[in-house]
Amino acid sequence: MDAAFQDALKQAATINVPTAHPRLPGPFGAEPIIRTRSLGKSYPKGPAVFAGVHLDIRADQRVALIGSNGAGKSTLLKCLIGLLPSSEGEIMTLGESFHAAPTAAQLQRLRRQIGFVFQNHGLVSRQSVLTNVIQGKLGLPGSWRAWHQSLADQAWREEAMQVLAEVRLADKARARADELSGGQAQRVAIARALIRKPRLLIADEPAASLDPAVGRDIMQIFSDLAREHGITLVYTTHDMQHALDYSDRIIALKAGKVFFDAPTGDVSLRDMDGVFHA
Ligand SMILES: Nc1ncnc2c1ncn2[C@@H]1O[C@H](COP(=O)(O)OP(=O)(O)OP(=O)(O)O)[C@@H](O)[C@H]1O
Q1: To test ligand 1's pocket by mutation, which of 39, 42, 43 has the most ligand atoms within 8 angstroms of CB?
Q2: φ, ψ of residue 115 in degrees (nearest 5)
């Protein structure tokens, strides 16, 4: 590593609390996969959820988004990927730049490159695990075949089996989704996101309803898959240990602002505490 790059890393590592400005400069933040400038969001008739948010999220990072209940984490995630219109500022995600909301064509291109996992796995309970995974292809070209595994061609079924193997669930392919435990269902949801071959994986509290051991297992799977496949992972969590153990970078929201945005190794428990207390 050359000296200039090391300096840039050191500079990037200085924690800056509180700030609404980007702090990952130069070489550390090559071409970002997500960039926002002066991003703000209010719901109709409501106060601002957040304002003046500047972010530069680099490809291949695992980013934990933390903050109290109602801090705006889910709202920010949805704005970043165009599922909710923002109220002010600019967004660039996966090369698509937009104010407020993406165009229909932009949204379609974004959806093709993004995988989603939510707290409630959202599987179709009466369908098989295999069909649920193949349904991850919906929205991609030729995707009417993804409604059921029997319509899908052999290549898609093989892909589905491969991603199920990656989450250690190949043996459950023929089981019905409602026969799975919470942790298994969440692993299927990850496989369903993975079959899209996403560049960006968005997860909103993916381990929230799981017991501690299973929750850690799910976070480890996310983390390993993101690394192995070079996927950028952005997730929200209320578990500070998950944020510390399974991210390269932590972004904290507090009182409608970015409270800190720093490499995980530079975030102390005291910094974390400041997110939740005055
Ligand atoms: N559809 C909506 N209409 C109006 N207000 C909303 C809507 N969704 C969220 N809000 C409000 O926006 C604020 C931020 O909510 P959001 O769900 O983004 O926070 P969060 O940090 O994800 O919270 P949690 O950790 O509890 O999931 C809250 O005050 C919430 O009440």
Answers
A1: 43
A2: -110, 145
User: 93 alpha carbon to ligand 1 midpoint, in Å?
Assistant: 22
Which residues, 6+ apart, have CB-to-CB distance to 228 below 8 Å?
Answer: none
Tell if the pTM clears 0.90, that is, is over it: no
Ligand 1 contact via 74 beta carbon (within 6 Å) = yes
* Cα(70) to centroid(ligand 1), Å: 5
pLDDT interval class at 86 (50, 70, 90): very high
Alpha-carbon torsion (28, 57, 64, 270), positive or negative: positive
Q: Is the pLDDT of residue 93 over 80?
A: yes
Sheet containing 200-204, strands listed edge to edge, beginning at the edge strand earlier in sequence: 114-118, 200-204, 232-236, 62-66, 249-254, 257-263
- Phi/psi for 184 (5° steps) reads -65, -40
Residue ranges of alpha helices (H) inside the chain are 3-12, 73-80, 104-113, 129-134, 154-166, 182-194, 212-229, 240-245, 269-276
Say if CB 195 and CB 133 are below 8 A apart.
yes
Taking phi first (over 0 means left), then psi (-120 to 50 degrees means alpha), and beta for anything else, what does residue 118 get? beta
For 76, 78, 93, 97, 164, the CA distances from 54, given in Å and listed in that order, are: 12, 16, 13, 14, 37
Percent of the chain with pLDDT over 70: 84
pLDDT at 154: 79
Residue of higher predicted confidence among 14 and 251: 251
Measured between alpha carbons, how far is 28 from 216 in angstroms, rounded to an integer?
28
Residue 36 pairs in a beta bridge with 55, 91
